[in-house]
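Why does residue order matter? Because the sequence determines the fold. Keep that principle in mind as you read this record.
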Amino acid sequence: MNLLAQELGRELTSRSLTISVAESCTAGGLAHEVTRVPGASAYFLGGVIAYDNAVKTGLLGVPESILVRFGAVSAEVAEAMASSCQRLFETDIAVSITGIAGPGGGTPEKPPGLVFVAVADASIARSRRFDFIGSRDKVRSQATEAALMMASSFLADR
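Structure:
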């Protein structure tokens, strides 16, 4: 079991907080890790796998103008995904991941391994860029770990 997910679960439980997720390149990997922890139903309300941009705009409500201007793999889209997810599920915090897991699909400006993770509550969203190296599975695993760490750090600052 993932130690970061366990620690996040303990923190959410002790503070009676809830969490939701919006994932693209990890395709549910973050939700999987969060819910592997016994008792996760006390704090995990749900998630959206927004693999396609139509899901980002349609279900999550990410403004199409942000997608067009910055691209799906950007800090702006990650923050919009997290904020929208937080509102959609009415959770205390939401975490989002968007990136290019590879091995293809990248460009020189946005290569495989580029991932943005964001965490939001009702008042603020914070994002961070990561440049991971490795196979598709490694990138997805590293992105999930980064998201768990960011969620814990976000809670520590609250």
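Residues 1 and 10 are 14 Å apart (CA to CA).
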